[in-house]
Amino acid sequence: MAQNTSRVIDEVVAIVDTSLVTKKELQDRLNQVEKQLKASNRAIPVEELRKQVLERLIIERIQLNLAREQGLRVTDKDLDRIIGNIAAQNKLTVDAFKKKIESEGIRFSKYREDIRQEVTISRLREREVDARIQMTEAEIDSFLSERNRGRAAVPEEIYLAQLLIPVPNGSSDAEVEGIKTKVQELLQQASNEKDFVAFAKKVAQAGGYRYEDLGYRSLDRLPQIFIDAVAGVPANKLVGQAVRSGAGFHILKVVDRKGGVAVENIVVNQTLARHILIKHKDNLTDLEAQRRLNGFKDQIRVKTADFAQIAQKYSEDGSAANGGNLGWMSPGELVPAFEQAMNQLAIGEVSEPVRSEFGWHLIQVIDRRQAQLSADRQRDFARAALRERKLDQAYEDWIRQIRDAATVDIRQAN
Question: Three-class SS of residue 118?
Answer without folding.
Answer: helix
